[in-house]
């Protein structure tokens, strides 16, 4: 039975990935931060270590000798990276080096996939693909760019290492610090009379938003390719935050969203890439990957889940 090791196993992607791997019969081990109270998918063997503890990470890779290593852990919010740039580099950039070195030294058969991000492209014109210059404009993007270059450096030395350059991907498991879930939770609460308004930032900001389980499938496929490589993973469709608001309130049964949405400068970003849209043709050709859930269905699923959560709790 193959063995997979997932860093960030309690996050949105880690949860979906663990489920998919367990369903295939893979033995799944996951890294969680010490003292974490987050829910781990049943069936996952848990290892506690701080992601910044490179010695602990390397010891785990040397002991487990995983067939597949999915590196998902790290500070995952662009907004938060402006609050704590040093922590972002320590948690999102440096651990990639520790894991790659461990694979090279102690577990050469391990195939690693690194969850990279569209943020490495900064404000490059849309659409972006694997040839787009790396030019991040946030501490998060810069930390992810470091990871990306480490992966390609170790790949040159013969390590089976790939980056999945993931565009925004959402689901009912997305934390509320991300705008999509913030909106769907608020729309559901407003629909049920639990609050009146939601305060948001830039409604004109746009993103390429996809369905998280599709992105996890792309990572599984990348790890299993005979040759490693980097792939842009996204839908190619841009929608604004306003589009998301309109769709979410409609899905919650509220036609007129405007009285319920307030904007506040504190939620605006210093620099906000406006044109992140993926050209995922390489993933389509090499991985046979394509998104399965379109934007309206994605929004509806998230809203339905948040409405159900409220209705079950009363
Ligand atoms: P990320 O920045 O792409 O990692 O994802 P977010 O979901 O945090 O933000 C997506 C976009 O929504 C960004 O362009 C934000 O500027 C915009 N946005 C507008 N209002 C909000 C808000 O209230 N919270 C967050 N997190 N983002 C907002």
UniProtKB/TrEMBL annotation:
Lineage top rank: taxon: Bacteria
Keywords carried by this UniProt record: Lyase
Gene3D superfamilies per the UniProt record, alphabetical: NAD(P)-binding Rossmann-like Domain, UDP-galactose 4-epimerase, domain 1
EC top class named in words: lyase
Protein's UniProt keywords contain Iron: no
InterPro entries tied to this protein: GDP_Man_deHydtase (IPR006368), NAD(P)-bd_dom (IPR016040), NAD(P)-bd_dom_sf (IPR036291)
Cofactor: NADP(+)
Domain NAD(P)-binding: 5-302
Entry protein name: GDP-mannose 4,6-dehydratase
